[in-house]
Amino acid sequence: MNKTENINIGGLIFYIDENAYQELSHYFEAIKRSLTDARGQEEIMKDIEMRVAELLADRQKSDKHVINRVDVDEVIQIMGKPEDYRIDSDEPVYDEPVFEARKHRKLYRDTDHGLIGGVCTGLGHYFGIDPVWLKIILLLLVFGGGSGLLIYLILWIAMPAAVTTTEKLEMTGEPVNISNIEKKVRQEFDHVSDKFKQMDYTKVGNHVKTGTQRFGDGISDLAHTIFSVLAKIIGAVVLFFSAVGFLSICVAGIVMICSSGMANIEAFNYIQTPIGLETPYWVQGILFVLCFGIPLFFLMILGLRMLNSQLRSMGNIVRFTLIAVWILAVGVSIFFIAREASQMAFEGKDVQKENLTLIANDTLKVRFVNNDRFAKNIDEMEDYRLTQDSLDHDIIYSNQITIHFMKTGRKQPYLQIERLAKGKSFKEANQRAEKIQYGFVFRGNELILNNYFTTAISSKFRDQKVDLYLFLPEGTMFKTDATVQNFDQSENDFFNLHFSSDDYLYRVAPDQIKCVNCPENENEYFDVETSEPADPGIPLAPEAPAAPNEARFYRDQQGTLHRK
Fold this sequence. Notes:
By secondary structure, the chain is of the alpha+beta class. The chain is 41% helix and 18% strand. It is built from 15 helices and 20 strands. The strands form six sheets. A six-stranded mixed β-sheet has the order 10-11-5-14-15-16, with no helix packed on it. Strands 4-9-13-8 form a four-stranded mixed β-sheet, covered by helices on one side. A hairpin with a 2-residue loop joins strand 1 (4-9) and strand 2. Helix 2 runs antiparallel to helix 9 (178-198), helix 6 crosses helix 7 (147-158) and helix 13 (281-307) runs antiparallel to helix 14 (316-342). The longest helix is centred in the middle third of the chain and has 48 residues, at 211-258. The termini are far apart.
């Protein structure tokens, strides 16, 4: 029957029989002899003893369990023997011992390499990914609603910090044996030793810090930490938005470049873009990517550097090449923009007048119509659009039409059609204006106007438009339908079109156009006799003279009626 010993290993008490105790003592002595380098010898032995204590504790079946040789042999097999590792020898090892299989990683906070609490760095070790991405995700969650901060605090509380060498090895998934323990301890010892070697002892000795100085240094360190955290946050924001912008620029540029390979390649050369009208789409796509993509690329690199200061910077050749390409692209873009600006420098006009023969005392009716080939609805409005006519010719279609109701001293009304366009000279602008095709019909007492115009695709988009001026003699009665409201640009003080009904009747008076049958709550201009307004249900005769005490009324934007 073997004698039992009571021993303390790594702060834990064990009952161990005599044979097992002797074997374990010889094992520790062998490890000490193998550590020929005195650096960190005590720390290495302490960590090894703590690991051995953990393994022996796992094998205790009860509080009265006595450690025997079988338990010690199992622990030695896991930890390995010193001669198996040949720690201090550079010669290759051919007969490797049977070690414990690589363990699964355990979740700890890496306080040695973490920025704040080591949460993201510990998660990076556990999942085997770069902790920078985890930091970016948490920052996005912080800015996306604040949940990232709560998650970080919960993980900080729940995750233990990796303090001992064993915990640090378990955190990275490395086997916890005497080789890795020694390696880890010596790495940390060398790191601390290098810091001491780099210190200027003379300077330290000559500048003994007072309590106030130490307090100031503490405040400085705290400020440095805060600014470091802010830099990381700003870096994440810069990286996110610059990456999104860079991706969008690349997609848009690729679409513009590839548009040159589409079927209607000629049509794309006439589409108006921010750069201009003359430059082909594929050229604009390349310039677009270079002018905006290169700065966003540099911002992405800046954001990455702010997140990870150890990130390797791009070489000078690459950096200066990109800057040179960007300067060249900006210069070319400025040239194209200046050239395009010259294409819109002058405005040309083509004027056409058409008399409208209206029977005396007859009421003129005005309305707009659409072409079903170009638009199925009168309310469909397009600034400019490329399309084809009935002969399959490529044309430019537009609803840039305005109408102005005016007064004339002539006895008969007439319509003045002004076609306008721009160009790099008056001659070119006038020629382009003459090519605008616009149509109307005057039938009986009805004026039917097209709500669109067309022009040849070779004219390109040069701010073409059509202005209509309907000149009416004094006393003329006319009606408009709802289509006119989309195009009426008359002076409001002279003619205020009412949109609530197509049955309103208007009369051209000496100083303004009056609605003779509009309701009082809508009518801004109406006649009054004595103190009461005229009966809106009885239209006035075209030649009826105005009352001597005629007054003017108008309604403000809030709908309040005022006397002028």
